[in-house]
Amino acid sequence: MNGKINKGDNLKIMKKIQDNYVDSCISDFPYWLEFMGKYWDKGSPYEWTLPRAKELYRIIKPGGYVLIFGHPKTNHRMKCAFEDVGFQIVDEIDWLYMTGFPKNQDIGKLFDKRAGVEREIIGFVPTSKGIRPDSHNLIGDKWEHKGHPITVPTTELAKQWDGWKTAGLKPAKEPITIFQKPLEGTYCDNIEKYGCGGMNIDACRIPTDDKLVRPSIQRFDNEVYGKGLGAGIQVEPEGRFPMNIITLDESIWFSKYANPFPQWTDQELSKKTQTKEKTLTDGTKNTHPTVKPVELIKWLIKLVTPKDGVTIDIAAGSCTHGVACEELNKEGYSLKWCNIEMDEDEKGNSLGYIDIGKKRLMQLFNT
Ligand SMILES: C[S@@+](CC[C@H](N)C(=O)[O-])C[C@H]1O[C@@H](n2cnc3c(N)ncnc32)[C@H](O)[C@@H]1O
């Protein structure tokens, strides 16, 4: 294995890393929304990020990239902290996943609740198994079907505001901000000195069945044009230029966009994004609530990290970044990686994330 998992506060651990050592950081920070009541998801995005961004600025090489997952509600504060310590914002990728659930409350129901009145039940929302024939029948004093009840408004205000919801839409994307530490001199100067600064576009091209042609002048000897001169068409072999939206879900890609992961069918995709990360080969569950797809992290690493570069994740959770690096190393990369994870609840008890991460890495070497 070409990497290390470090347990502890990322701020303290980063202080042990030398200046200008790391080529890239890909991290899924807390979103500071107290997700599932998690202690590590509390706090203020700007105050949490500022000292960490400062340390990242010190350890990242000039021209190196930092990619941070964010939430539309808190992302801007995290971005300000990176900008304030000197990073430049290069772009923002939208990772589309489409499987989120809307969390809105029904305003009509809120009015009825406030008035303390019952709402009449007129049916039940069908379950994934479909509507049962008895779903609307009362058996004794109980509804036979335990689905979500469909009710009608009772009070005048509830009738008036029926269909209105509290703020927000169905979550279907997560932004990933791309920061860059400023270059020293030109791209050429910087890359020659530090070995990083560019984006590996060709390694991240989006495969497509469309015939892509890029008109260009090719120099070759030609009877008509003479020595070293000639017109030609160059075909791009590796696919489309990567966009600043990405998805693993084939069903989202209309015919004009190619699926970036065409080796997977729809069914395999849902297995890859849900089962592969969530269940280990020995049946152990990955209990981390915000696991990211390995394939997505691999694609991000490839985009901004030299093949033999040093890459870090300072909020590693169940070590998806480490797993992605080791999978890439099996595919011909020689990445060195470091994962930092606090792995603690508010009482200092282990959450088991690092143990899960270690197991995920071990299973890679046993397959
Ligand atoms: C959003 S999760 C990352 C999940 C990860 N992408 C995965 O696939 O498993 C963020 C992680 O950051 C960790 N964390 C929060 N504050 C930290 C700190 N100060 N130092 C190290 N890790 C921290 C949390 O324990 C949590 O596991």
From TrEMBL:
It comes from the Bacteria. This is D21 class N6 adenine-specific DNA methyltransferase. Keywords: Methyltransferase, Restriction system, S-adenosyl-L-methionine, Transferase. GO terms for molecular function: DNA binding; N-methyltransferase activity. Gene3D superfamilies: Vaccinia Virus protein VP39 (3.40.50.150). Residues 22-345 form the DNA methylase N-4/N-6 domain. The keyword Methyltransferase applies. It comes from Paenibacillus naphthalenovorans. One of its GO terms (biological process) is methylation.
